[in-house]
Amino acid sequence: MSNKTTVISEAQLNTQFAFCDRIADLWRIEGRTPTAYVETYGCQQNEADSEKIRGYLTQCGYAIQKEAEGADVVVMNTCAIREHAEQRVFGNLGALTHTKRRHPEQKIFLCGCMAGETKVSDRIKKSYPYVDGVFSTHHLWQFPEILFNVLTRRKRQFYVADEPGSIAEGIPHVRDSELKAWVSIMYGCNNFCTYCIVPYVRGRERSRLPEDILKECRELIESGVRDITLLGQNVNSYGKDLKIGVDFADLLAAIAEIPGEFMIRFMTSHPRDASTKLFDTMAKYPKIAKQLHLPFQSGSSRVLKAMNRHYDRETYLEKVRYAKSVMPDLVLTSDVIVGFPGETEEEFEETISLIQEVHYDSLFTFIFSPRTGTPAASMEDPTPKADKSRRFDKLCTVQNGISEQIHEAYIGRTMRCLVDGKDKDLLTARTEGGRLVRFEGCDSLIGTFQDLTITGCTTWSLTGKMQNA
Predict the structure, then answer these.
(1) Concatenated DSSP letters for 20-66?
(2) What angle do helix axes 345-358 and 313-326 make, rounded to 10 degrees?
């Protein structure tokens, strides 16, 4: 795995755009508009990558559709974080044999984090002959070239070499929303948590230049985007590789000073690099959402050390206490893994006690899933599956009770929310802390910020009404 960063030049990107033009010409000769379908698995970074894939496809002349059936191109953008996610991908990939049988000229591609695993590309070569192309995250910027080769050479394409991590500015995007946008500020990860495959499939940390990020944010705000989420595997380490004296807090402040009505969010934050400067910056600027996703993974210091997380229980709690002291209305969410190899019942109870002390608004909870190639996959794991499932159920019960209590405390409060869509007959909105609110209102309110009084709640959402209704 290379620890270098390759900056894709303007000339290299122009070569890809030339491939786009050549593909579009092929379809013009055929006399029809081709269609494409992109299916995304996993995290927000994958969603952002899919926006680029759709952008390239659109520039190649494709119309984007919402199902694989009948599409001329199908792209599966995959996740390798958990075994369940991989098995789901293989199951859905197998189902594409039927769509390709009905449409023999359909071209199928697999990309994303799974494509960066040698075992996966080898399995595709051997057992999925109808898959036309595989490319890892390092080769996403070359997708037009890969597609052109498949269309013209009638030969399968595998772009999975362990290339240095790259940064390519200027790839077009087709975003799902006119109101919300993902903005990747960095790629890769240097932390090498013992359970995590990400550094092996996405490479080492590499940050985009702040001027490029600011330019993208300004353009989004001018186009009407009202909610921007900054993305990175660990946004808190942004800028370390650039060595220009700009850290993540500085970047946040610079974006918050852009004129316009909008909100900034970010994820994911590694506790190791979460600083008081970051929390103070969040507290200072009204445009920075008082929402923090700060994965703790385990409440046991021994387990955290085995995970290679570089902090202990008390260090994590100190950071949370400080963040809440400068942002009393902070909405705090986290990730937690149940059943890490060697976790005892007592250590699991430490996780429960941490959850009860912090009072998270919500949690993303997982049972440990061994990933081939990571140190944790070879650790002794004596805990029976039934015990892990029992612990997982208890954790969910505890957290659901806390979430419901927090939501009940919202009732009667008036909150500024971004109205972002509809759910059947009701409008939907998001609070500054990202909580979902359903309420009655006119469609013309979509895209505006409104003051909503909270009137009811469930464990996972709120109901409200317009302040003057």
Answers:
(1) HHHHHHHHHHHTS--EEEEEE-SSHHHHHHHHHHHHHHHHTTPEE-S
(2) 10
Interatomic CA distance for residues 165 and 102, integer angstroms = 38
| DSSP letter assigned to residue 297 | B
Q: Of the candidates 9, 24, 96, 111, which has an alpha carbon nearest to the alpha carbon of residue 60?
A: 24
Q: What is the DSSP letter of 328?
A: T
Strands 180-184, 165-167: parallel, antiparallel or unpaired by DSSP? Answer: unpaired
Q: How far apart are CA 183 and CA 161, in angstroms?
A: 26
Question: Would the CA dihedral through 47, 51, 52, 57 be positive or negative?
Answer: positive
Average pLDDT over residues 2-9: 77
Q: How far apart are CA 40 and CA 344, in angstroms?
A: 36
> Which helix or strand (DSSP H or E) is residue 307 part of?
none
Asked if 277 and 303 touch (Cβ cutoff 8 Å), the reply is no
| Residue listed under structure tokens 């944010």 | 217
SS3 state at 362: strand
Phi and psi torsions of 431, nearest 5°: -70, 170
Identify the burial level of 43 via C-beta atoms within 10 angstroms of its C-beta, where 0-12 means exposed, 13-18 middle and 19 or more buried. Answer: middle
**pLDDT tens digits, one per residue of 151-181:** 999 899 999 987 777 899 999 999 989 999 9
Do 435 and 413 form a contact (C-beta atoms < 8 A)?
no
Class assignment of domain 411-466? mainly beta
State the average pLDDT for the chain.
Answer: 95
Given a cut of 80, is residue 73 above it in pLDDT?
A: yes
Just give the CATH number of 5-166.
3.40.50.12160
Residue 297: the pLDDT is 98
Give the per-residue pLDDT at 3: 60
288 secondary structure, DSSP code: B
The dihedral through the CA atoms of 439, 441, 443, 446 has a sign that is negative
Tokens, residue 448: 């505006």
Tell me the C-alpha distance between 222 and 251, whole Å: 19
Return the DSSP state at 265: E
Taking a C-beta distance cutoff of 8 angstroms, is the pair 23, 147 a contact? Answer: yes
Cα(307)–Cα(271) distance, integer angstroms? 13
Domain definitions of the chain by residue range: 5-166, 411-466
Could you report the per-residue pLDDT of 360-398, keeping only the tens digit for each? Answer: 999 999 999 999 899 999 999 999 999 999 999 999 999
Distances (CA, A) of 90 to 24, 39, 99, 220, 275: 30, 13, 15, 36, 40
Separation CA 234–CA 204 (nearest Å)? 11
